[in-house]
Design brief:
heterodimer, A: 32 residues, mainly alpha, 1 helix, B: 526 residues, 21 helices
């Protein structure tokens, strides 16, 4: 994998993980 | 239609509906279609149009369906004919466009359940070791074709095994739907989704720790496998085909445009949040697709088949990857039978959480508009769809499934998504829609989305519809790629679909006609 591949993987994974953590944090916080 | 008002079903918890919508969205496409699309359309560069489509098309459509569904549910309508009618009461014909939102899910259900049953069978075969002796692509292909009844060979002597697994899968689906929204679908998704994710993480971790299994071929390693999927080819972004593929993938993966999210959201209360819940369902699906789906099949296939064969494997399609390539890979690793079981069990869970959602619109239509009780509605649905499933099973090799998939799984989706977006943003009105979306909302959506939902998403969808129609629609409609021997089967399938659509339209006509007559009678007595 070249540098571009690393960057694209890191960038995409970061967006999705941040979005998922944010959403579930908000959903579960409200539940409590 | 009925005199006595009965209470509609409801979700047991907020997490329950989020997991149910995510379960509907997470399907075979997340693990098989996505990596193939990415690898064939620019690798890492594919993620640029993919993310653009996610934010401009997928997320807005998800919000539109959640909001419209909850709005319609407030008027005791759980399916598109009634929901569209409540949003555009002056238009007498809009309810017939809503029929697509019941027709599409039924059509997908009648072939998807059969494909789902193959997954159950392969999970079972993994435990019994039935395909462990098969060690070539050609052999595994023959195994699959024998199982599907397309040929008689040393592995299978006919369709009997496949049919037994189909009946089991079909009954499982019906049982879940029979148990209702809270006791069936929500309960299933509450345990199936976490298990699916755990299985996905275990398999992805195994693939990501493959390293270089064959030291005589140092280039066949995991990093190069990930590179095959992720190394960006930015020149691909100049091609309209790549942007179209990305938009299509987002559309299919999120289960938008089918009608199932409308129905699921119709069981929410007026004050329940839809903004955060919709976004959470999207993010769960993306986690399964990009992070898990992107880490399994393509990197694993690269490591075991090398840089030359992987190109052909990626082109051979999602089914080949799932049912032919993956079992061969698992065969080559320690504890392969266990990993093969986890793989097919994961796909089966992804499948069943989607198929039960496909059944719900038709059941909800009978419950809401014909005042049937759930059990009766489920029995009618089961009987009719069991009969409709038969052509997909017995004439699989004659193009029946492809025909069903085009009309139910492609054309109906894009058309329905376009219609509902226009109704929501333009007829219902973006100001009212925005207010409705934010009723009970736990997050404030950036205002730019008001502009996106009104202008960008509809234009995006109309473009997608136009491109699809001319690129794929015209050749399919004119049956250009259908072999002469398959022509009668394809025509018969098409006639069956037309009949189904007309029957549904007639049922909608009956309900509204009766309702109008009843309204007039009540006016007279008053």
């Amino acid at each position: 994998m070249n540098l571009g591949g690393f960057l694209m993987l890191g960038f995409t994974w970061a967006i999705i993980i941040i979005l998922t953590v944010y959403c579930f944090y908000k959903v579960l916080a409200k539940k409590e | 239609m009925n005199g006595t008002k009965k209470t509609r079903q409801a979700w047991g918890s907020r997490l329950g509906i989020i997991l149910a919508v995510a379960g509907s969205a997470v399907g075979l496409g997340n693990f098989l279609r996505f990596p193939v699309q990415a690898a064939q359309n620019g690798g890492g560069a594919f993620m640029i149009p993919y993310l653009v489509a996610l934010f401009l098309l997928g997320i807005p459509l998800m919000w539109i369906e959640w909001t419209a569904g909850r709005f319609g549910g407030g008027y005791e309508h759980g399916t598109a004919p009634g929901i569209f009618h409540t949003m555009w009461q002056k238009n007498r014909f809009i309810k017939y466009f809503g029929v697509i939102g019941i027709f599409g899910p039924i059509v997908i259900f009648i072939y998807y359940t059969y494909i789902e049953s193959w997954l159950l069978a392969y999970a079972f075969f993994a435990l019994t070791g039935k395909y462990l002796s098969v060690n070539t692509q050609a052999g595994m292909q023959a195994f699959l074709q024998g199982f599907q009844g397309l040929e008689k060979n040393q592995y299978f002597n006919g369709l009997a095994t496949a049919y037994i697994f189909f009946v089991i899968t079909f009954l499982l689906n019906i049982y879940v739907i029979y148990r209702g929204i809270k006791g069936g679908i929500e309960k299933l998704c509450n345990w199936a989704m976490p298990i699916l994710m755990i299985f996905g993480i275990i398999i992805a971790a195994r693939v990501l720790s493959l390293g270089t299994p064959d030291i005589s071929k140092p280039g066949w390693n995991l990093l190069n496998g990930l590179g095959f999927l992720w190394n960006p080819d930015f020149s691909a972004l100049k091609s309209a085909r790549v942007w179209l593929a990305a938009a299509g993938q987002i559309f299919f993966t999120l289960s938008v445009g089918i009608g199932v999210i409308l129905t699921y959201a119709s069981y929410l209360k007026k004050t329940d949040d839809v903004a955060l819940s919709g976004l959470t369902a999207v993010s769960t699906n993306e986690l399964a697709e990009v992070i898990l789906g992107g880490s399994i099949v393509i990197p694993a296939a690269f490591v075991f088949f090398g840089p030359e064969q992987i190109v052909g494997i990626a082109k051979s399609g999602a089914f080949n990857l799932g049912f032919v390539t993956m079992p061969l890979i698992f065969r080559a690793i320690p504890w392969g039978a266990l990993f093969a079981f986890l793989w097919f069990a994961l796909l089966f869970l992804a499948g069943i959480t989607s198929s039960v959602s496909l059944a719900q619109p038709a059941v909800a239509f009978m419950e809401d508009e014909f005042a049937l009780n759930r059990k009766k509605a489920v029995w009618i649905f089961a009987l009719i769809t069991f009969i409709l499933c038969q052509p997909a099973i017995f004439f699989l090799g004659n193009g029946v499934v492809d025909e069903l998939d085009f009309w139910g799984g492609t054309f109906a989706l894009v058309l329905f998504g376009t219609i509902e977006t226009i109704i929501f943003s333009w007829v219902f009105g973006i100001d009212r829609a925005w207010e409705e979306l934010h009723t009970g909302a736990d997050i404030r959506i950036p205002k730019i989305y008001k502009f996106i939902m009104k202008y960008v998403t509809p234009v995006f969808l109309l473009g997608l519809l136009g491109f699809w129609f001319f690129q794929e629609g015209v050749p399919v409609i004119l049956m250009k790629n259908v072999a002469a021997t398959n022509l009668p089967y394809v025509v018969a399938t098409r006639l069956m679909l037309v009949a189904m659509f007309l029957v549904l339209c007639f049922l909608v006509f009956l309900v509204w006609n009766k309702r109008a007559k009843k309204g007039k009678e009540e006016e007279v007595t008053l």
